[in-house]
Amino acid sequence: MSAEVNDIVPRLNLKKQKTKRTTNCSVKNPSAVGTTNFTKSTRAWFLASALYDEIEDEDLEHIKKLLEDNGADPNQLLPEYGVTPFHLVVGNPCKPFALEATRLCLLSGADPNVRSEDGLTPVHVSTIWGCIEVLELLLRSGGDPSL
Fold it and tell me: Which stretch is the leader sequence (predicted)?
């Protein structure tokens, strides 16, 4: 005895319901929701990360390009490292590189008193690593050892 599916399962009277979708995806003022600030902070982070990488590679040409042509901020705190690119450069073990890269950063607005997540400044870092010439340059540029 073969039963039809329709005999076993009662027919369901399903009507397609019309639903009104109210989707408002247009944003008249992007700065009102932080879009502009997000874009600016993402760009700043990206450029500072690129600067950090070039400092690690000791590539003065690319450092100069990032600072002068692209506006990379050597004072931008990079949360993944807890320091700024400027902290990295002042403690570099290659003294001639550290001195020239520090000079380039200072010319681009680097702050000798900018703090890391641990509260250290580039003055502290250059002192810890024994970078005396870099320390002297930082002090002449407004670095404050008492911070």
Answer: none
In a domain, 96, yes or no: yes
Q: Helix (H, G, I), strand (E, B), or coil: what is residue 52?
A: helix
For residue 8, tell me if it sits in a domain.
Answer: no
3-state secondary structure of 143: coil
Residue 78 backbone phi and psi in degrees, to 5: -105, 105
Q: Is 21 within the bounds of a domain?
A: no
| Intra-chain end-to-end CA distance of the chain, in Å | 93
Print the domain residue range for 66. 32-140
146 in a structural domain: no
pLDDT tens sequence across 74-86: 999 999 999 999 9
pLDDT digits (tens, 9 = 90+) for 13-65: 444 444 444 444 444 444 444 545 555 688 999 999 999 999 999 999 999 99
Residue count (the chain): 147
Tell me how many domains the chain contains: 1
When pLDDT is averaged across residues 93-109 and rounded to a whole number, the result is 96
CATH number reported for the structural domain that contains residue 50 in this entry = 1.25.40.20
Is the pTM higher than 0.70? Answer: yes
The answer to whether residues 133 and 141 touch, using CB atoms and an 8 Å cutoff, is no
